[in-house]
Structures are given as structure tokens and as C-alpha cells.
Design a protein that fits this description.
- This protein has about 400 residues and is mainly alpha-helical.
- The protein has 3 domains: about 90 residues, Leucine-rich Repeat Variant (Alpha Horseshoe); about 100 residues; about 180 residues.
- It contains 23 helices and no strands.
- The longest helix has 25 residues.
- The protein is elongated and about 90 Å long.
- The chain starts with a helix and ends with a helix.
Length: about 400
């Protein structure tokens, strides 16, 4: 440690501060070395002087020096003794990252931006809408480029999308500010889904969920995104069961009876079928659980209205569970989700559900399995479902 600090103070930092033109190569290399040092060193005035010198290097007209100096900021993030001085430079450093990223596909720049956001979230949130707007413009520019398929470009775009997600998740309950961030980024999400940029569906779905979670309401423009998500190619839908089931849950929970629009419902039913009724070689417990979650949110939030409009849905939901629960290992948590879905159906229409169970020869198995697995209904949510089911059963 002491030897390194000696070299740092006597050789590396003086070279960064040097104003000699012929020292550009050494200055660049010294900054490059600093970018890999992520440990605290002994506090001292030399650190603040070094930070000031690196900022001057960031303002250089030499592109190589600008890149290496910007990446050298990692060193100062790791040293808390200069955090107050560091804060004064955050807007300039973020702008440098964005400016360089518009020219170069350098993934460490996205890591640096993430690091700044993670260590200084309150400072970043002050100008989050503008930052997200800049990131959005950069992302669309990259996505529209003919070079957007290159591995380096893909990683950079993915990194910036994750940076926006970090900003969104740090702004929960921030009211109008998060709405402004969403409005500034809507066109990026629309572009990804509308242009079928499948390499970034994961990030776009996560961001959509992040905005829904933070806003806890459905903006009018979000319905356009929802329709596009529901209409994604089915071979893409199958890849993201958790993300898509969460999105549907949020839209049903916060959007109410708007989801009962026939075309929306039909697409939701198709997605349920994709997850719960695949061929034998492609049946997975996780997919089945996500399908059950989608059916559950419909029954819990708009169940009575849904069944009054389409009474046959009780049979559709019940048969999905009965026909597939035999394909699930007995110790799988997927069994619990299936049993709970039958309880929801029973609550809404007990006679119809009992008739379906009887016709399928599943009545005894349903009650015996539910009783034998009573200790596996562990969540508060599970217990509420069971209490509601038993209340309906005893009222008959």
C-alpha cells in the first residue's frame, strides 16, 4: 500500500498534472492505470489536486486522454475523502460519459455511470429527467445505427438501459419527477417494441415494470406499450414469463376494467395458453406458475365482471389447472398455485367449479391434496385465499 502511494504521489499524479504537450501519452496511460485502482488510499490534499487535474484532462481536446481521464474517475469514487469535492463535478462527469458514448462503444463507460449513480443517488436524482432524456436519445441513436448489431454496441446499449432502470428504481414515490422521467423515456420503450429490437426486450420489460411499480397507476400512453407487449411474437413471450406476468398483473391491478376490452383479453388468454398449455417437451413449472399468476390477477381484480361477460372462463381456467397439475412433481410449489387458482374459481362460481371437478374426476384429489399440503400455504396471500375459499365452502 505504502509503495503504491509513493508511486502514485511522486510519479502518476504529477504526470497527470503536467501541462507539457509531449506528455500526452504518459498522461493518458497514468489515467488508464488509475481507472483500475478501486481501493482507498491515505487521505490527503494530493487527492483533491489529483481530482482537479483529472477533470482538466477530461476537458482535453485529445480524445484518448478524455476517455482515459473519464474512466479514471473510478479511482476517486472509491476514495470517500474526496466525496464532497467529487459531487461538484458530477454533472460534468456524467456529460463526459454521455458525450464519449455517442462516439465510442466502450462498455466500461456504462459501468462508470452505474457506479456514479449507485454511490451518489440523491445527487443524480436532482437532474434525473434530463439525464434519462439524454440517455434515451443516445440509445435511439445507437439502435437506429447500421452498426447496432455489433457485440460492443449491444453491450453499451444494454448498459445504458440498465442505467435508466437504476435511476427509475431509486426514484420510487418521487411523484411528478418519476412521471417526467417516464415521459422522457417513453419513446425509447416504444421504439424497442415497435421495431422488434428483441435483443433488448429483457431490459425494456424490466423498465416497463419499474415505471408501473414506481407510478402505481397507468398513464394513457402505457396502454400502447401494453398492447405491443401482448402482441410480441409468441416465441419471444415464452422467454420472459416472469416479466410479462408481472406486467399483466400491474396493468390489471392498476388499470381495472380497461383490460376487459376484447382484444386485450384475447391476447392475455393466448399468453396464458403459451405458458400453461405447451407440448410435453416444453412444460416448465415456472411457466405454469406465471400462467396461474395471470389468471389469478384477472379473477381477483376483475373476476366478477369477467365471469358475467364470459361464464365459460371458469371452465377454461379450471381445466388448465386440472389437465396440467398431473404433469407437475408433487413437491413443486407450482401445485400450490394450481390449487389456489381452483379456489378462486370456486369462490366466483362454486357450483360450476364443483361440476367441472366432478366431471374430471378431480374432486377428491383436489380436497385431499389441499389438506395434505396445508403447511405449504405459507405466504399471507396463501392464507387469505384459503380463508376466503373455506368461507365460501361453508356458506353453501
Amino acid at each position: 500500500q505504502k509503495k503504491f502511494e509513493y508511486i502514485l504521489i511522486n510519479y502518476i499524479l504529477p504526470e497527470i498534472k503536467s501541462s507539457q504537450i509531449n506528455s500526452n501519452i504518459l498522461k493518458s496511460q497514468c489515467c488508464y492505470l488509475l481507472s483500475f485502482v478501486e481501493e482507498e488510499v491515505t487521505p490527503g490534499n494530493y487527492l483533491e489536486e489529483a481530482l482537479d487535474s483529472v477533470i482538466l484532462a477530461i476537458r482535453s481536446e485529445n480524445d484518448a486522454i478524455r476517455v482515459d481521464a473519464t474512466l479514471a474517475i473510478n479511482f476517486f469514487i472509491a476514495n470517500s475523502s474526496v466525496s464532497d469535492r467529487f459531487r461538484t463535478y458530477i454533472p460534468e462527469m456524467v456529460q463526459s460519459v454521455l458525450s464519449l458514448s455517442s462516439i465510442h462503444d466502450i462498455e466500461p463507460l456504462t459501468f462508470l455511470l452505474d457506479s456514479i449513480m449507485q454511490n451518489y443517488p440523491s445527487d443524480i436524482s436532482k437532474f434525473a429527467p434530463g439525464l434519462v432524456n439524454s440517455l434515451g436519445s443516445l440509445i435511439i441513436s445507437h439502435l437506429s445505427s447500421k452498426e447496432s448489431e455489433g457485440d460492443d454496441r449491444l453491450m453499451v446499449i444494454s448498459g445504458f438501459l440498465r442505467s435508466v432502470e437504476s435511476i427509475v428504481m431509486s426514484m420510487e414515490d418521487s411523484g411528478p419527477l418519476i412521471l417526467e422521467v417516464y415521459n422522457n423515456f417513453y419513446n425509447v420503450l416504444y421504439f424497442i417494441f415497435n421495431e422488434n429490437k428483441c435483443d433488448f426486450f429483457q431490459e425494456a420489460l424490466d423498465l416497463t415494470n419499474g415505471f408501473l411499480f414506481s407510478l402505481k397507476r397507468i398513464e394513457k400512453s402505457m396502454w400502447h406499450l401494453f398492447v405491443m407487449i401482448l402482441n410480441l411474437p409468441r416465441d419471444e413471450v415464452i422467454i420472459y414469463p416472469t416479466e410479462i406476468s408481472d406486467i399483466i398483473d400491474n396493468f390489471v391491478s392498476f388499470g381495472g376494467e380497461v383490460v376487459l376490452e376484447p382484444s386485450i383479453l384475447q391476447n392475455i388468454y393466448e399468453i396464458i395458453t403459451v405458458y400453461c398449455l405447451p407440448d410435453d417437451d416444453n412444460f416448465y413449472d415456472e411457466d405454469f406458475i406465471c400462467g396461474c399468476k395471470i389468471m389469478e390477477t384477472l379473477l381477483l381484480n376483475v373476476g366478477e365482471k369477467l365471469i358475467s361477460l364470459d361464464p365459460q372462463r371458469i371452465g377454461f381456467f379450471s381445466n388448465i389447472v386440472i389437465d396440467n397439475i398431473v404433469r407437475i412433481e408433487e413437491d413443486s410449489v407450482a401445485v400450490i398455485y394450481g390449487l389456489e387458482l381452483l379456489m378462486h374459481c370456486f369462490y366466483l362460481n362454486p357450483i360450476e367449479t364443483i361440476n367441472i371437478l366432478t366431471n374430471k374426476g378431480f374432486t377428491k384429489r383436489f380436497f385431499s391434496t389441499t389438506f395434505n399440503k396445508k403447511k405449504e400455504f405459507k405466504r399471507v396471500h396463501d392464507k387469505k385465499i384459503c380463508v376466503r375459499f373455506l368461507g365460501k365452502l361453508l356458506s353453501l
